[in-house]
Amino acid sequence: MLAGAVLTLITGQISPYDAILAINPGVMLFLFGMFIVGEGVKNSGLLEDCITWICRHASSGTMLLVLIIGTMGLLSAVLMNDTIAIIGAPLILILAGRLGVSKPGAMIALCFSVTTGSVFSPIGNPQNYLIASYVPDLSPYLLFFSGLFIPTLLSLGVIFLFLRPLFREVSNPAEGCRFGEISPDTKPWPVYLSFLCIFTGIGLQIISGLFQMGWAVPIEWIAITAAIPVLVFSKERIRLLRNIDWHTLIFFAAMFVLMQSVYNTGFFQGLIPETGGTDILLVLVAGILFSQVISNVPFVALFQPLLLSSGVSPSIVLALASGSTIAGNLTILGAASNVIIVQQAERQGVHISMRLFCRYGIPVTFFQMCIYAVFLMAIPYESI
Fold it and tell me: Can you give the residue range of the structural domain that contains 84?
């Protein structure tokens, strides 16, 4: 992505000034803040506690799958799917090993869970925030929650139905359920403050939408405010800053430049029919299929100026968000979180082939697409 952005500058496809303007500062601040919070969660041991809790309550394969889907899906809606993918993959691998279930199956369950669980939250994944930032007249939390929460719950149920055969009976862990000892110097309360900031900001966003106050706390402010306690009270803030995902931040900055340059050519706009911006099913399908080629975030960055025009229906906004997100369930290349999880599994000697992933991903994505399409087309636009 960076090489492509540099080439557009060298060849004069976009001027340096326009390249700077193309970079969305809100998205960059949002990602920076959420990565800091995610690193704080990683250092606090809270996710280890969560996995320990799953281990202790997983009395059967069915219960284990339910707990993985529920906890990982919910956490991705709050802390972003890529963050949970980075932190959760090695822990879920250990959990699968101790309980004697399929490690590839556990990794696929994690992929599907963090992808699907992030659909109904504007901070659940980068593309959702990107979409929310282009519809400032709508309250993003109220819009996403009211329009996508119920179909997302049903879609999480689809994951359970198709992955249940991979989770037979669990065995009692010989090594116990404790996943590493937490240092006595570790203090989780700064992360609790971060969560308080996030949920307070979400609450203010919802209240603003319900009472049509005309102003709400910008999502990037929520992320940056949530990052402050982690930075201020961390004894190793330099290491924390060094360990956040700078590669993804570079990717996004370069992506904005490259996608703006590509958009200026007008080539890809011709691929969508004139009615494409008003057809819920077409937007859903386009989001799923195009994301396999250029990934979901570049797809949204490239097509949102066309699809999210002035006066766009809220259902089209939600169709773009849900289609580009559940695209990650179709193939490994559909979402960055999949690549993160699969790469971490490979480092531990667990191979997840594209064939195995697609064996479950294709039917899961098809039924999820049907759920979102039916739900978004059945509800009048005014009620969302």
Answer: 2-171+183-383
